[in-house]
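Input.
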Amino acid sequence: MPVLFALLCLSAAAATAADDYVIRGKNDWLFIRHEIVHEELDKAAQSSFGLIEKLNRVLARNDIALLVVVIPSKMETYVEQLPDDFKVSRYMQGFNDSMQSILRSGGVPVIDLKKPLRNAALQNTDSPVFFRLDTHWTPTGAMVGAQTIQEGILSNPSLKKAFDSAPSVKYKLEWTNKKQRTKFRDITNYLPVGAPTYPPDEVLRFHVTRENATKVSLLGEMAGGDIGLVGSSFSGESTGFADALRYVLQRDVVNFAVNGDVGPWVVMRSYLRDDVFQKKTPKMVIWEIPERVVGLGPNYSFRPDRYKIDDSEWLLQVAALGQRVCEGAAIKPKLEPSGLQGVAGAVGSARTTDADFVEFSFDKPVDHLSYLSARVVTEGSRQVSIESHGVGGAIKKFTVETAGDELAHTLKTPLEVGGRGVDRIKIYPGTTKTFALSNVEVCRYSEDWLK
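Output.
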């Protein structure tokens, strides 16, 4: 059985063999079963929508507009290409509308891409919006998505205000004159041995260029950073979606898309933790999420353990990372002599080993209403391990990703242990060439996010 199937299949009953993973449709169209949205996971979906609503409040309190963009299923976009014996359930047919209604009622701006993509699929059959042999959208689909997002931004006063505050940048667009063969065919990787071969997709492509262009980083970081795109492989640079947004918005867009099975929750947390957010607070964040995973929360059981997060823990983490300014919690950290030492609360070391640690105690318990904030250098180590000692003896051990270079970066994390306050912590930087910890303080959340 393919690994991807085992990880992303929404129900153990959805398929039992590799042959069932791929749905062979009409006219050489292929679909995959993990697109199916299952009614038995509706309770989990409602919890996920609640987390999105709270993240929206976190960002709004810090003058950042969040726009949620859910990519509809290829199945429903090209339902007529499904085999006659496969029917999309009534629950799945209504899932997109229900999801949007719930998010909007909670104050979350969300863009409806289902209708525009379906209309484009029906009106221009010569330029599909999804690849026949792949899970992703074509350049045409990416452009339809970007144009729909632009319309949604301009029609929403709060989004338009954020958009207008970002400096405009001139981008140019050029489409190819004829269709080109593509290598997008990921679904064919899951066909059983002996399955027939399929001719590759041929699609029109476009090329977007920026006047007075500057060098782009691997994450698509550009000067400005006022609009952030956080997403899945649908937002990868190879799909053209980020460039389509840059063109239709005429704005620089920092692209923080991550391929693979990490899930949208890890990607959003990683973005908020990264310098592209911490050093340059954006005016707007566009969060792209495929429909098939929007209802699978941070603790989804089929996700790899390294990407699985308790829902409450995820919420406290992103709420800490989203704060622009530390609101003092009136809790004082004290550097203890048992670990690495420094001056006036700042710790520095030429190098550290896995056994080295820094220990802080607190004059008052740190509970879920507060979080730790600091600046850290961990050259050579890409994570720090933290050991929280709770009141009453409870201990929690966890890790926090770090850049691992010679520069100082933001470290923000909740500390509480199982509902108990924390009276001391140990921070293990790992094996480093240089380690430094400074600006250690306890900050208070803007509200009780666990209510």
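Confidence is low (pLDDT under 50) at residues 1-18, 216-224.
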